[in-house]
């Protein structure tokens, strides 16, 4: 019996080691292919850094052998966006895409000019509060996604709220009377600004107008989530709200998709587009 147990222990150990070795080889091949696809995407002229790439599905080697992949998730950060005044700084955003099942080169040997035949693309262009502040010319802008009506809470993922298109809360400081915010040496939210100013929270609706992000402030926000509510003279309320409203320049999206809808994403704002079957090349991301 002791001999049999020893043989069983050795057999189990060998099996575990073999499975571990196979898993390590599979994971290593996937990482190599993700790196190749990332470098290929970085050949796109608007992608400044190697994007983050995750290839879906397991085992990877089975997919690579057929050139038939379960999908991919791509996030390219630091993409320069048009329309910011130089004095405000460069506007940058994150371009992302989720590919459905797609066909490409075998062995995961992705190249910049390879054609990927994908069943679907879900793309987004995401702007953080710093970038939105530069567009709106409100230097201390913050963005929050409130909980749904009737649910008290801070909103955001911790409350099961990730995004919404109406009633997103923007908070920031504007001068009184409101100006265009173009004077980079005298922004109203700077501590050195000595003129009258108010810091307020407003509710905004997000939409897409001819492919561009439209931000429209609808009213001052008074809760229940965290907010600020400085007194605004009655004759300036409309002008203050107008400082939080804007149609941005048309922003790039992955593979030239056109934005279909706009929504908040936690403390960010994003344009979203979905496509069906399409052929794409990494260097045209």
Automatic annotation (TrEMBL):
<dbReference type="Pfam" id="PF11209">
    <property type="entry name" value="LmeA"/>
</dbReference>
<dbReference type="InterPro" id="IPR021373">
    <property type="entry name" value="DUF2993"/>
</dbReference>
<protein>
    <recommendedName>
        <fullName>DUF2993 domain-containing protein</fullName>
    </recommendedName>
</protein>
């Amino acid at each position: 019996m002791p001999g049999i147990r020893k043989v069983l222990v050795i057999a189990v150990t060998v099996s575990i080691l073999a499975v571990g070795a196979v898993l390590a080889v599979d994971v290593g091949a996937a990482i190599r292919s993700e790196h190749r696809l990332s470098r290929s995407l970085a050949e796109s002229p608007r992608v400044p850094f190697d994007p983050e790439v995750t290839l879906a599905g397991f085992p990877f080697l089975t997919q690579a052998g057929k050139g038939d992949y379960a999908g991919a998730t791509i996030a390219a950060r630091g993409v320069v966006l048009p329309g910011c005044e130089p004095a405000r700084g460069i506007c940058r955003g994150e371009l992302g895409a989720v590919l459905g099942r797609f066909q490409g080169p075998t062995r995961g040997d992705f190249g910049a000019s390879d054609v990927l035949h994908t069943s679907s693309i879900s793309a987004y262009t995401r702007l953080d509060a710093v970038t939105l502040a530069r567009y709106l010319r409100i230097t201390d802008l913050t963005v929050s996604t409130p909980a749904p009506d009737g649910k008290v809470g801070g909103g955001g993922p911790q409350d099961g709220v990730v995004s919404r298109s109406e009633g997103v809360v923007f908070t920031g400081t504007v001068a009184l009377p409101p100006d265009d915010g173009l004077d980079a040496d005298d922004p109203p939210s700077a501590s050195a600004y000595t003129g009258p100013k108010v810091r307020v929270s407003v509710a905004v609706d997000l939409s897409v107008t001819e492919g561009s992000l439209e931000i429209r402030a609808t009213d001052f926000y008074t809760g229940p989530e965290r907010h600020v509510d400085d007194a605004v003279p009655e004759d300036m309320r409309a002008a203050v709200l107008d400082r939080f409203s804007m149609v941005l320049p048309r922003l790039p999206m992955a593979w030239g998709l056109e934005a279909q809808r706009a929504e908040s994403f936690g403390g960010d704002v994003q344009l979203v587009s979905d496509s069906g079957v399409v052929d794409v090349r990494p260097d045209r991301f």
